[in-house]
Amino acid sequence: MAMTNRQDTQRWHTLVSRQSENLGALVEQFMKRLLDAGEYRDAGLREAELRATSSDVFALMLRALVDPTQVGVVERLASRLGRRRARDGIPLESMLTAIRLDFPILWSGLLSTAGRSEAHVLAAHAEEVWNVVDTFARFAQAAYLAEQDQLIRERQDLQRQQISLLFDAVGQFEVNHVQIARALGVSVSSFYRVVAVPSESAVTLRHNIDKAHFSERVFTHEQGRHLIAFWQIPATSPMVVTPRELALLDRVRAAVAPIARAIADIPLAALAASRMVDQLRPDEERVTDLKASWPMLAKKYLAEIGCDLGQYVLVPLREATERENERLLETMVAYLHTGSLLGTAATIYCHRNTVLNRLHRIEELTGLDITKPADAALAMVALASQQN
């Protein structure tokens, strides 16, 4: 029995040795099957590289079939290949399909050189052949996935760096916007939706982004007391956010900037959104935009240079009694909101003529005829806090 076992081992080594001598034929079979399957057709890999890799893999697998100490070398080669294919951009399943071709090729090669007296030898070692190929596939897959995770981290780090560069460069130094766009995987001339939320809403916004089934990649950037989010939109997109975009802003205090019409415009749009969201009260979980925010913004920045428009409205109205003052303010706010006598009357529950009389009284006290656009705009800014 011992003699038989030694003979079978010798026969097995001989069969494997024949395949080592026939390495070129194994590689040719592999290349034919691989190219016929089309797995690597669009991968951009040179055929010479595929042949060299195939030769190395087959040679090492054959050595491992007769020398168990070579299994560790097989694992290391598989790991290197897995990492390389991940960086080559080869789909994981394509790589595994290519590796799995090795078993039928090896087995066919062994069968073709084995005689009838060696059939039982092949049968006894069939599992070893499969295990070598399976081990190679498992280690290649594990390395591929680890490398893929590393690539994702590297790409995310690069994107964060480029986004920071985009924002930090404003007014400081020139940046290559084409390079930034390339790193983000977007077009430099695309249109972008830009929103800002205060820091206390950042966690909710990130959660909304993570759970949303959104077609566009949403980028974020922390800037001072705000979290900025932006994403590509079609050039035909409306100024107001769509329902799908609005879902990203659920349960947050947010402001939407005017559309950024190029990647270079994003930082300024972010600044606008930040200033707008600051006008909302802490208890207001809603979305504002320029249309809703401009009176408050105008009032704030005019006041900073000593232009208090309240002098035109609030101060003159103090000449009226307290009760009349309240009614006049109520009428002004309603009229500025509705733009019509009937709409105002319906809002404050009074007759149209009452509204008209109050508007005349307002003009008498302030000099503003708020039925005229210019005077209405001034009044809107002066009363921004009341309207808000």
TrEMBL record:
Family matches, as Gene3D superfamilies: PucR C-terminal helix-turn-helix domain (1.10.10.2840)
Superkingdom of origin: Bacteria
A Pfam family: HTH_30
Domain RsbT co-antagonist protein RsbRD N-terminal as annotated: residue spans: 25-157
PucR C-terminal helix-turn-helix domain sequence ranges: 328-384
Entry protein name: Uncharacterized protein
